[in-house]
Design goal:
Helix content: 25-40%
Structural class: alpha/beta
CATH topology of the largest domain: Rossmann fold
Largest sheet: 9 strands, mixed
Mean pLDDT: 92
Strand order of the largest sheet: 2-1-11-10-12-13-14-15-16
Distance between the termini: 50 Å
Shape: globular
Number of domains: 3
Oligomer: single chain
């Protein structure tokens, strides 16, 4: 059971089928396998110890796909890097991950000196562009040189059931560093078993086949984007890679032209499409499904999506990087009946709602959502104390507050770190955000706690209005008062043109808090 088996299966079954499309370039499964195998041979000739950590600083591209699987095939560990981070943050992660080898895209040449500064462990750089004149003190070579030196690569035989192959299943496969939106990044260690079993389960409930093609706007270094990569490698589907979501119409045009059957995004992607594009005016005839994860999507936004595309399958999903990532999914046929639910367990995963003493709470009572199963991470790299806080008794304590209804469907009620303690009352930021989003002039909203001399912590809302609309602080507060208790109404409301976001599309609340403290919002 190795992640590379996922690609081997599809390369053997569908060698000439298109595996990925990026710009005007296409990659077949045969080419993907051959090029990853050739690169893996080069990595093996470096005589790196098995399990050596290899960092990847490449944006979504065909090269990324080749590099990612070459690392697994060579028996090494992949460390995908957030390409949106400042050079010093990338430098920190490479050092923290103890990676002696860095795959770096030529577009980061200008930042490269700062990226590798003070890193005595780095012994080789491999890039799509020559780097010898940029960083002379670290040896470098190009991908093209590596691939040209390799001989012919045979297609693999179709592996037997990879779920039954225990060889190396519990070895470390990848370290995914969390976004850092809530503080210092942590390296989440995922084994081959974690990634493969979760991938197979996701393919099952999404009913993915070789006929599927997904529009990929999520970065591959982000665990949700990585899930798209692995599921389509596993089922023989096609990855339609497009890094231009800042121009949503271009992406929508590409979806129609390439006949995408799937689209995956976080809540902000859907809000942008619904409020600032021709999304709802398009038929998207070939599209079979949407998937949404990466944070709770407000029921009002889900209703808008249903109204526009009720004939499509809409999968609401929940997960965490620490769970490889998928934990629950909501069957599309239950979407309206269970509006606001994150659904039921992914095959092979167990979910419990526990109180502070570790006891299961009654139906419809709130507790912490706790996960167990083959998808649960190995731990945080070099952070035993942080690991011990969330992994206890083989179970992952997610920090998310949730309840389970009588039918076995789960509902997130808040996040421990996003519970605002205002005047002695506990307020869920998620609940307030959902109410604000019901306002007909609001496109996006983010709610968080700020220091307050009277309340200890006061509720602040930062709001983005729909194009052409205007309103005031009092109107937002009055709207909230209609459905929320007085202590849940935001004391402060600011209006901005756009919310700051991480490259994954998630709202960067840490930055919002910093902007509040500086008076910028």
């Amino acid at each position: 059971m190795n992640v590379s088996d996922l690609l081997a299966t599809s390369a053997a079954a569908f060698p000439e089928k298109t595996a990925a499309v990026y710009s005007d370039n296409r990659l077949s499964f045969r080419q993907w396998w051959e090029r990853s195998s050739a690169l893996a041979e080069r990595l093996e000739r470096l005589d790196l110890p098995p399990g050596t950590h290899v960092a990847i600083l490449f944006e979504n591209s065909l090269d990324y796909l080749i590099i990612f699987f070459a690392i697994f095939k060579a028996g090494l560990v992949a460390v995908p890097l957030d390409t949106s981070l400042a050079a010093d943050k990338v430098n920190f992660i490479i050092k923290d991950a103890e990676a002696p080898l860095l795959f770096v895209q030529g577009r980061y040449r200008r930042q490269l000196a700062e990226i590798v500064e003070g890193n005595d462990r780095l012994s080789l750089l491999i890039s799509d562009k020559p780097l010898s004149k940029v960083i002379e003190h670290i040896p470098s070579e190009t991908l093209a040189e590596t691939l040209e030196k390799s001989g012919p690569i045979d297609l693999p035989a179709i592996p037997e059931d990879i779920d039954d192959d225990e060889t190396g299943a519990d070895d470390l496969a990848a370290i995914f560093y969390t976004s850092g939106s809530t503080g210092v990044s942590k390296g989440v260690m995922l084994s081959h078993r974690n990634l493969v079993t979760n991938t197979v389960a996701t393919v099952e409930y999404l009913r993915l086949t070789e006929k599927d093609s997904v529009m990929v706007i999520l970065p591959f270094y982000y665990i949700y984007g990585n899930s798209l990569l692995l599921t389509h490698a596993a089922c023989g589907g096609t990855l339609l890679i497009d890094n231009r979501f800042m121009y949503p119409e271009v992406v929508l045009d590409a979806m129609e032209e390439l006949k995408a059957t799937g689209f995956s995004g976080v809540p902000s992607h859907f809000m942008i499409l619904l409020n600032n594009s021709t999304f709802t005016e398009r038929k998207l005839e070939h599209l079979r499904y949407f998937t949404q994860a990466g944070g709770a999507m407000a029921p009002e936004v889900i209703r808008q999506l249903i109204d526009a595309f009720g004939q499509k399958e809409i999968f609401i999903m929940y997960g965490q990087t620490e769970a490889a990532p998928r934990v629950t999914w909501l069957p599309p046929e239950k979407l309206e009946e269970k509006l606001g639910s994150i659904g039921i367990e992914v095959p092979g995963v167990t979910v419990e709602i526990l109180d502070e003493h570790g006891n299961e709470v009654p139906t419809d009572q709130t507790g912490e959502l706790v996960v167990s199963g083959p998808n649960v991470m190995m731990g945080y790299f070099k952070q035993p104390e942080e690991t011990a806080q969330v992994l206890r008794g083989g179970k992952l304590y997610t920090g998310d507050l949730a309840r389970k209804d009588a039918d076995g469907y789960y509902f997130i009620t808040g996040r421990r770190r996003e519970i605002i303690k205002s005047g002695g009352n506990r307020v869920s930021a998620k609940e307030v955000e959902e109410r604000i989003l019901e306002h007909d002039k609001v496109a996006e909203a983010a709610v968080f706690g700020v220091n307050d001399n009277v309340l200890g912590e006061a509720i602040k809302a930062v709001v983005v209005l729909k194009d052409g609309d205007s309103t005031g602080v009092k109107d937002i507060q009055t709207h909230c008062q209609k459905t929320l208790a007085v202590h849940k109404v935001p004391k402060f409301v600011s209006f901005v043109d756009a919310l700051p976001k991480l490259q994954s599309g998630k709202v960067n609340k840490l930055l919002l808090k910093e902007q509040h403290e500086s008076g910028a919002v």
